[in-house]
Amino acid sequence: MTDILFSSWGGVVVDNRGKEPGEYEEVENVSLPSQFTEDENIKALIGWYGVVLRSHDVDIIDLCRAYLGAVQNESCGKCFTCRIGTKVLADTLTRICQGKGQNGDMDIISRLADVVREGSKCNIGQSGPVPLLDAAKYFSEKFEKAIQDKTPIPEGSYRHRLTAPCMDACPIHLDIPGYIECIKEGKFNQSLNLITQRLPLPGMVGRVCVRPCEEHCRRTILDEPVSIKYLKRFVADNNLEKKGEMLFEPTPSEKTGKVAIIGAGPGGLACAYHLALMGHKVTIYERFEEPGGMAAMGIPDYRLPRDILGFEVDQIKNMGVIIKYNTMVGKDTQLADLEKENDAIFIAIGAQGNTSMRLEGEDEGYKGFIPGVHYLLEINKGNDPYPEGKKVLVVGGGNVAIDCVRSSFRIGKDDVNLVYRRTRKEMPADHVEIKDAKEEGVKFHYLTNPIKILTEKGKVVGVECIRMELGEPDESGRRRPVPIEGSEFVVDCDILVPAIGQAIDVTLLDDGHQVETTKKRTLVVNEFTMQTSNPKIFSAGDCVTGPSTLIRACAGGRKAAINIDRLINGKELKIICEDSFDKLFEEVKVFDPSEEIGFLGGQKRLHLEMLSPDERKHTFEEVEKGYTSGEAMIEANRCLRCYRVGMIAV
Question: Which residues are CB-contacts of 105 (< 8 A; sequence separation ≥ 6)?
Answer without folding.
Answer: 92, 95, 96, 143, 147
